[in-house]
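DATA SHEET
Item: assembly model
Revision: 1
Owner: S.N.
Input lines:
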Amino acid sequence: MARVVVDVMLKPEILDPQGQAIARKLPQMGYEGVVAVRQGKRFEVEVEGPADEAALERVHTIAETLLANPVIENFEIRVL
Amino acid sequence: MARVVVDVMLKPEILDPQGQAIARKLPQMGYEGVVAVRQGKRFEVEVEGPADEAALERVHTIAETLLANPVIENFEIRVL
């Protein structure tokens, strides 16, 4: 069994109100020095067998159909 | 300027209904071979200056007070 991570982030040109809200809150809480925050999703997908090319190809298909919205989000896949 | 990633995942002993819903849906969509899915959050925090020890310490404090709930979530910090 292998664990594959899928990181999903909004595309840079897409507004991220959640991240902006966090970044705006930080100075009020006394934390300086943070310029920007972007919030995304992280999935840990446990696959049967080894994380070979076929398994990663399958996770890629799952990511683009179910985990991410390719119109507004980018995703990256890596073996944990 | 440096970019620091904060990965936030539910602790292993905490039930993850979102991840379970995805894992259950996959076979119905024709995707076999996935044993489990866990869903978490990923934050990209852009900090002023270099990602030195002081900056990472600051991000750690922000993560445990604002980005994660340490009662039910674990987090990991790494420089991008």
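QC remark: The longest strand of chain B covers residues 34-47.
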